[in-house]
């Protein structure tokens, strides 16, 4: 679905929510498809504790990434945004509001995100 204003075509914002129990913890995911990219929020409670953005660059094979808000010592949002931007070739905003407990947990969360994105190719 798209809308035209002054000759420009704008994609409609679509929203997709899903949840998963990972290592006995309920994790919630909120994805908003934007024109040319998407916003992903991951958390167990309704908190926006950080925000990172990443996008491809013609000067480097690794996407550019920066933390827009949050604790710079927590690199989870930045890293995830960068990996998703590389995979999807889109601009990606990520808020990762989960405690950094162990790497296995983070890998399982990322695996679940990638599985969902594969199930919804028409959205992303």
Automatic annotation (TrEMBL):
One GO term of the biological process aspect: proteasome assembly
InterPro entries from the UniProt entry: PAC4
Pfam families xref list: PAC4 (PF16093)
PANTHER family: PROTEASOME ASSEMBLY CHAPERONE 4
Protein name: Proteasome assembly chaperone 4
Organism: Pogonophryne albipinna
């Amino acid at each position: 679905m798209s809308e035209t204003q002054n000759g420009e075509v704008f994609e409609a914002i679509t929203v997709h929510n899903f949840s998963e129990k990972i290592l006995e913890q309920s994790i919630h995911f909120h994805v908003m498809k934007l024109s040319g990219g998407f916003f992903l929020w991951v958390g167990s409670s309704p908190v926006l504790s950080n925000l990172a953005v990443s996008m491809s660059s013609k000067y480097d094979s690794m996407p550019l990434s920066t933390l827009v808000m949050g604790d710079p010592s927590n690199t989870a949002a930045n890293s995830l945004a960068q990996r998703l931007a590389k995979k999807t070739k889109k601009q990606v905003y990520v808020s990762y509001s989960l405690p950094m407990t162990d790497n296995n947990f983070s890998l399982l969360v990322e695996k679940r995100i990638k599985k969902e994105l594969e199930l919804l190719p028409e959205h992303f």
